[in-house]
Amino acid sequence: LAGVSRSVTLVVAYIMTITDFGWEDALSVVRAARSCANPNMGFQRQLQEFEKHDVDQFRQWLKEEYGENSSQDLQEAKNLLSKYKEQAELHQTTGGRQWNNNFSSVPSLSYSNYTTET
């Protein structure tokens, strides 16, 4: 499955840099939009090291070089983190069992769209 580990790690590092989120909250932001996001253990360790040793320097450098962040990324990240936490709480209170009607988004075809082969 593409877009699960390496690209997620880069996005998490970006979110960590433009916000004050640690790596776990930044990963939760990504998971709110892409539930299959799952950096491998090596990438998770690198994100931990980035948080521990480097992210503050990058945040400071960005501020000095470009000023305050004028993009909507910070607010969007906060909104997604809130959404993820709500989903996690709902999942916990329902015991992980929740009916999800995925079929509502599938357009139905009229009978005339089906063909019979002879």
From TrEMBL:
GO terms for biological process: signal transduction. It comes from the Eukaryota. It is found in: Cytoplasm. It catalyses: O-phospho-L-seryl-[protein] + H2O = L-seryl-[protein] + phosphate; O-phospho-L-threonyl-[protein] + H2O = L-threonyl-[protein] + phosphate; O-phospho-L-tyrosyl-[protein] + H2O = L-tyrosyl-[protein] + phosphate. GO terms for cellular component: cytosol; plasma membrane. Keywords: Coiled coil, Cytoplasm, Hydrolase, Protein phosphatase. Residues 2-52 form the Dual specificity phosphatase catalytic domain. GO terms for molecular function: protein serine/threonine phosphatase activity; protein tyrosine phosphatase activity. SUPFAM superfamilies: (Phosphotyrosine protein) phosphatases II. Its main location: cytoplasm. InterPro entries: Dual-sp_phosphatase_cat-dom, Prot-tyrosine_phosphatase-like. Residues 67-94 form a coiled coil. Belongs to the protein-tyrosine phosphatase family. Non-receptor class dual specificity subfamily. This is DUS22 phosphatase. It comes from Sapayoa aenigma.
